[in-house]
Amino acid sequence: xxxxxxxxxxxxxxxxxxxxxxxxxxxxxxxxxxxxxxxxxxxxxxxxxxxxxxxxxxxxxxxxxx
Length: 66
Fold this sequence. Notes:
By secondary structure, this protein is mainly alpha-helical. The protein has one domain. Helices cover 41% and strands 0% of the residues. The chain contains three helices and no strands. The longest helix is centred in the C-terminal third of the chain and has 12 residues, at 50-61. The radius of gyration is 11 Å and the shape is globular. The N and C termini lie far apart (26 Å).
């Protein structure tokens, strides 16, 4: 069973290790940036603003520090 913090896209956001996995394999950024071939996230909602996406991208690019 998935936790309440999981999204329809299947990305678990309830712990660091799970989030780090999706961040490092490209799924998190692909989903939040609504890139072709990815499932737009947040599911059923408008795309996150560019500032939030850039902040997440920077976190990913710096190795997803804890």
